[in-house]
Amino acid sequence: MKKITLLALACTLATAAAAQSWPDKSVRVVVPAPAGSSLDVIVRLLGDKLKDRWKQSVVVDNKAGAGGMIGMDMVAKAPPDGYTLGIGFNGPIAFGPHMYKKMPYSPSKDLMPVVLTTSQPNVLAVQASNPANTLPEFVAWAKKQGNKLSYGSVGNGSSSHLTMELFKSVTGIEAVHVPYNGSPPASNSLAAGDTQALFTVAPALLPLVQAGRVKFIATTSAKRVDLMKDLGTVAEAGYPGFDAVAWNGLFTATGTPAAVVERINADVNAVLKDPAVREAFAKQGLIIGGGSAADFKAFIDSESQVWGATIKRVGISID
Predict the structure, then answer these.
(1) Could you please report the per-residue DSSP string of the chain?
(2) Which CATH class, in words, describes the domain spanning 121-237?
(3) pTM of the model
(4) For 190-206, how does the pLDDT look when each residue is reduced to its tens digit (9 = 90+)?
(5) Which CATH class is domain 28-118+246-314?
(6) Would you list the domain boundaries of the chain?
């Protein structure tokens, strides 16, 4: 019994020492989306502040593909020491288990939630030349297209994808899904007319809106957001209860010492309170996250339950 107690104490002291010395080398953050995407912007803004707190470089590693699963699989299979983080989002975390017959990792078993970083609503965007300027006008226009309409998304199983599938189910429109690896190519496809509609977060589309190539029709939050007060919601345009918010947060491999997770969580929470960071995120239309790792896990569990039911009802399945 005494040996077991001493062993437990030694393990506790070793864990505490590891957390105290962490980080003693650079920290890699895997972004499961291309450079220039919203996730990439978020990580680079956070990383610029975290490197000062950690006195180590923060290396951004873009690994887009498979609806975010390629990047998150790398995080799940990384050594559980906190030196490899990943910014996960709805698709490869809360949606995937309900859509894919097989995933290369188990989000609930192989990934440890660290902290919610930001959230934001999607917006419905169309080409600037589209005759529709309101949601009812868009629905009427879309129905006239029959099965000729195609829509882009930032990837299979993403919030961008599922939001449109939910929208199709409540409005009765038809549209063919064209998935892309991230928001930049999806946005460009819309501007070029290769696809005719896109649900994604606003920052990815703002340059195209400012250039007069794309316009917003509606937002998917339950209520209007401060930065887009003039933009109505899908819910208020005749589809009550419609609410689809994109969120993201940091994860590490399961097995990472709790003290290290707590250190990362505390530092990210501190950075999220930085006035410069808050201002930068606000300009991007991002809602600040934060909170404990336990809070983040509870949120993910809730999202998985809600969207799992939606995925089953709509009948989305990806091999």
Answers:
(1) -HHHHHHHHHHHHHHHHHHHH--SS-EEEEESS-TTSHHHHHHHHHHHHHHHHHTS-EEEEE---GGGHHHHHHHHTS-SSSSEEEEEEHIIIIIHHHHBS--SS-HHHHEEEEEEEEEEEEEEEEETT-S--SHHHHHHHHHHHGGG-EEEESSTTSHHHHHHHHHHHHH----EEEE-SSHHHHHHHHHHTSSSEEEEEGGGTHHHHHTTSEEEEEE-SSS--GGGTTSPBTGGGT-TT---EEEEEEEEETT--HHHHHHHHHHHHHHHT-HHHHHHHHHTTPEE----HHHHHHHHHHHHHHHHHHHHHHT--B-
(2) alpha beta
(3) 0.82
(4) 999 999 999 998 888 99
(5) alpha beta
(6) 28-118+246-314, 121-237
